[in-house]
# Entry
Amino acid sequence: MATAPGPRAGPGALVATWWALGADSLPAPPRDRQDASGRRGSWFGAGSCATLAARTRTEIQGMADQRWRATAITRALGARVVGLLAVLVVLLPGGGVGPSPAAGAGAETLRFTPPTGWREVHRVERDGLSVRHLVPPAQGGETWRDMITVQVLRTARPPTLEDLHARALAGYRADCDGARGGALQRGESNGYPTGFWVLGCPTNTRTGRGETAFFKATLGEQAVYVLQRVWRTDPFSPGADAGIDAAARREAIALLKAARVCRPGSTAHPCR
# Structure
């Protein structure tokens, strides 16, 4: 199994630990991977996440014909919404995420507990789309440095993992100087197809900041679920370390690894 990189690991090391992010059957990556199409690409270690909802709207329309208007708050937050499903979710008293009461017994649900003290600062509920933006204490608005987005989308034409990865990468390239993308890493989590990737933005042309994001996407039977752990940092040179220490990376991996999609009463996707 891959081991965590040192405190100042370079770009390639970030993805070397990312493969283990909660997938039950995801193999460890080689130094140079070959995807299903036979193309080879290098592992990427700095990621990016914050792009604006105007671009998000275009992606969602392209993936699922879902239409919604980005609000000024979402634009101010700068958090990128890649495309989610439409099982309604609520923050539970303990900070977790579960189905709304209307979902009914046996409905598919995302089990996710944010870090202690993190709070929801913005929410989108529209046309089968559910998005939550969470930040730690003393952060918010345009000043956030750390963010988690929980995205759920229900659609008759769900995007594939490849769709999600490709559109996210295209969006970052549109807004970032020197944007870099790690290859999609596929696996299975609690019986569901799951993908992981990292995207990096050395300098976001909209914010002037560097951004890094870890992505975990799960294709459920009733919805598609995408979680992102995002860092906003000082700008960094392409190919250089994004400045995220090893402890923060390990915490992010543990957080996303613990998030599971499940269905009460199901033996294939048990809630445990």
Residues 86 and 154 are 3 Å apart (CA to CA). The chain has five helices and 16 strands. The chain has one domain: 11-22+41-260. Residues 1-96, 98-105 have pLDDT under 50 and may be disordered.
